[in-house]
Amino acid sequence: MTYVFTDSRHGDLAVGGDGALLASRRRAVADARWTWLQQVHGADVVVVTEPGEHAGATADAAVTAVPGAVLAIHTADCAPVVLLAPGAVGVAHAGWRGLASGVIEAAAAAMADLGHPPVSAALGPCIRARCYEFVGPELHEVAERYGPSVRATTGWGTPALDVAAGVAAACAELRLPLHDVGLCTACSPRHWSFRARADAGRQAAVAWVDPAPWVRR
Fold this sequence. Notes:
Elements: E1 2-5, H1 19-29, E2 34-35, E3 37-38, E4 45-48, E5 57-58, E6 61-64, E7 70-75, E8 79-85, E9 88-94, H2 96-101, H3 103-113, E10 120-123, H4 137-146, E11 151-153, E12 159-161, H5 163-173, E13 178-180, H6 194-197, E14 203-208
Parallel strand pairs: 2-7, 3-5, 4-6, 10-13
Antiparallel strand pairs: 1-14, 6-9, 7-14, 8-9, 8-10, 11-12
């Protein structure tokens, strides 16, 4: 299984705009048809049985056991999560709403239904607690699901949500070792952040099952 967390060096991968330029940037990352999603901060999962299937579907996670089927989710601050299993892969778009809705658990269940339950996970660049001021009943909602570790404090001393801690808690419940790249989109000069800078650009988490027929060996 192979996965990539893109950044500005790969170019803006936001859906829309110049289609030819976007297609070129996608090919440079993974030269095959992509399954990308119309993300709505929910927990719906699509199961991809051939390359490009469900492209543009309304969902926040995708899973596949098909070699060479490229899965992608796009983020500016939300957490991009990749789930890995022998012979299968999944991707999940996890902001606070997705976390509270159980998108990571839903993706893991969909992989298990394929006969390939995940054995590990990876968390890419996302906004970190020090930059993510978050108040109101929604913070309590996430804490009710994943415990007090999601409650944090910003660098300027106000209440914050620790999205990465929520992802870690979800993976711990699933007994999945988690690799966290540890990057904050609000702090990183190589990543887009809607919350910190109102950026329109998007990075992507892209994953596929090897051996992909389009990879030159």
